[in-house]
Specification:
It is built from 8 helices and 7 strands; from the N terminus they run αααββββαββαβααα. It is α+β, with helices and mostly antiparallel strands. The protein has a 7-stranded antiparallel beta sheet with strand order 2-1-5-6-7-4-3, with helices on one face. The longest helix has 17 residues. The radius of gyration is 21 Å and the shape is globular. The mean pLDDT is 93.
Length: 224
């Protein structure tokens, strides 16, 4: 068996057939060709700008200084991400849970990756670059919603941008009406978190009801 594929082991079956090198991966899957190999751009073009203008939602991937990865969602009315120039975008930060995972990671490691989505589009836009945190009033003043001005924004220097094909969303049927899942098939978010943090203690219904109400109140009053 080649050295770049882990051998089977009775003691550690979790690493059976593990791919260890890019060479082994390429031998198995192959290399990009045609448009897939050419589509990566070093800056935003008209189509990237138009996609960002229509997008109300993105996910941003970051990594801490010690290599711990994280992905966080960001959402606002379509066009909330500001295109400052062909190589720079800015994402306003809205009130959250104060964990600050994304921004703490950026301070330790500025490399970021983003995926933009548009409801109804099965294509996505991917952007990779380097991020900084800014309190630039010119950026923050343009991000006011419901008279609430964000305290900070994530400014990203674009290093790579490309449109991603629709295969993942087609396979997932993400936007198709008959694929939508009724939220009631799982407990409420508040109940789940209470159960996850209870350390086995019973959670009474009054506590769950209060937590649900507080979460809904937070949605009503503190989105901005």
């Amino acid at each position: 068996m080649p050295n770049d594929i882990a051998p089977a082991s009775e003691a550690d079956t979790g690493t059976d057939y593990e791919i260890r090198t890019e060479e082994a991966l390429r031998d198995l899957i192959g290399h990009p060709s045609g448009l897939a190999a050419k589509k990566s751009l070093p800056k935003l073009d008209k189509y990237c700008r138009d996609f960002i203008a229509l997008s109300p939602f993105l996910c941003i991937g970051t990594m801490s200084g010690d290599g711990r990865a994280d992905v966080s969602p960001r959402g606002d009315p379509a066009g909330f991400v500001q295109v400052l120039d062909d190589n720079t975008i800015a994402i306003p930060d809205r009130p959250g849970n104060h964990r600050l995972d994304t921004m703490s990671n950026i301070l330790a490691n500025p490399s970021v990756g983003l995926i933009f989505m548009i409801p109804g589009f099965e294509d996505t836009l991917r952007i990779n670059g380097r991020a900084t945190l800014t309190r630039d009033p010119a950026i923050l003043d343009r991000a006011v919603i419901k008279n609430k001005r964000p305290e900070i924004a994530i400014r990203i220097q674009v290093e790579e941008a490309f449109l991603h094909c629709a295969k993942a969303l087609k396979r997932s049927r993400l936007w198709e009406a008959d694929a939508q899942v009724d939220r009631s098939v799982m407990p409420s978010l508040a109940r789940i978190i209470l159960n996850q943090t209870s350390e086995g203690e019973a959670i009474d219904e009054a506590t769950v009801k209060t937590a649900d109400e507080r979460l809904e109140e937070s949605y009503r009053k503190h989105l901005y």
